Amino acid sequence: MIYVTGDLHGDISRFKSKEMRRLKKNDTLLVCGDFGFLWNGSKEEKKQLDWIGKRRYDVLFVEGTHENMELLNTYPQQEWQGGRARQISGRLRQLCRGQIFELEGNSIFAFGGGTSEDSDARSEADNWWSSELPSQEEVDSARRLLEKRGGQVDFIITHQPSLQIRQLLNMDANDCSILDVFLDEVRSSSKFGCWFFGSLHLDKVIPPTEVAVFRQVLPLARLGAPARQTALKSR
Q1: pLDDT category of residue 228 using cuts at 50, 70 and 90
Q2: Does 124 reside within a domain?
């Protein structure tokens, strides 16, 4: 079974919650960005990563806007389940941007990154923050992979939603980045069963095909909008 949840922000207690404890051996947990456990490379942090990697289920995350991208990029990419991923520790992996993975018979398009609300306040010394947004090469590569599939995938996992959805939920969202343009393109030109994202810190269904997820741990199933509404209300 595959489950999806929102930003963890390095909170190890989330893995000990009632919702997480229901995950069984060989299940999969997808995290929609701001994983947060790769920050300073300390011994304590490495112990936490080792603990997460030893869970009985796979933990897979896309990066958000509060990750140490320089540290994350020290882990080499490798081929995994049809796409490229970074193995962090044991069963813990980062899903690289713009890759399509085959999990339990489902095709999953993953694209991490986003625009931080506090980016204007950061100093020039914080140069690793710049890689929160994708490069043109990453966008072009993702576009080609989607085109090879006729723009069709079962699920989309991102940190940030498309700009259209972000503006729907936040009327002050007026900035527009390379990621916003690309995700709007994906939304308008692709066929997908459901799109999950985590950046807005909401647990909310946006009918008919998009779901903002934060605290909840939802089964990743191709459900109609009424079924998703029921699933969200039951948590």
Answers
A1: very low
A2: no
- 89 assigned to some structural domain: yes
Total structural domains within the chain: 1
- The domain that holds 13 is classified in CATH as 3.60.21
CB-based contacts of 116: which residues, under 8 Å, 6+ apart?
65, 66, 122, 129, 132
Q: What is the pTM of this model?
A: 0.90
What are the tens digits of pLDDT across the range 118-139?
Answer: 555 444 445 555 688 999 999 9
For the chain, the DSSP string reads -EEEE---TT-GGGGGSHHHHT--TT-EEEEES-----SS--HHHHHHHHHHHTSSSEEEEE--SSS-HHHHTTSPEEEETTEEEEEEETTEEEEPTTEEEEETTEEEEEE-----TTGGGS-TT-GGGGGGSPPHHHHHHHHHHHHHTTTEEEEEEESS--HHHHHHH-TT-----HHHHHHHHHHHH-EEEEEEE-TT---EEETTTEEE-SS--EE-----HHHHHHHHHH-
* Residue-wise pLDDT tens digits, 153-185: 999 999 999 999 988 887 566 678 999 999 999
CA 224/CA 201 separation, integer angstroms: 23
Q: Confirm if 82 and 101 have CB atoms less than 8 A apart.
A: yes
